[in-house]
Design a protein that fits this description.
Elements lengths: L9 E11 L6 E8 L3 E6 L8 E10 L2 E18 L2 E8 L9 H6 L6
Antiparallel strand pairs: 1-2, 1-4, 2-3, 3-6, 4-5, 5-6
Length: 112
């Protein structure tokens, strides 16, 4: 029987921004979990399956939000949840300490 491999995910509630590469508009979203391979989020915007996107991560420094890293990805699935859309995003690049050091630090205890 084939084993269903799923990467370990870190449960994390955070505000992020997302935008489709073909639209120059950042949309606020709520991140629910993240792994070294991708993430799940809730968004009010109308993203489509297979859209190429950028995810903008921010952090709090001295009381204000600082933009940190923009990670490219692809929408793998989407599902309507009330007036929101839940979506799964697979990163297009490997997340490691060289490519995305702050996201990698957040994921240091998660094994893909």
């Amino acid at each position: 029987m084939a084993e269903n491999h799923r990467p370990k995910r870190r449960q994390l509630l955070a505000d992020v921004k997302i935008k489709a590469l073909n639209i120059n508009l950042w949309i606020p979203a709520a991140l629910t979990n993240v792994s070294k391979e991708g993430l799940c989020l809730y968004v009010m915007g109308d993203l489509k399956k297979k859209d190429r996107v950028l995810i903008k991560f921010t952090y709090l420094e001295n009381g204000s939000m600082k933009d940190v890293e923009e990670v490219p990805g692809v929408i793998r699935w989407k599902s309507a949840v009330g007036s929101y859309n839940a979506a799964g995003v697979r990163f297009e690049v490997k997340v490691d300490r060289k490519t995305y050091p702050l996201l990698n630090k957040c994921l240091k205890h998660v094994k893909a």
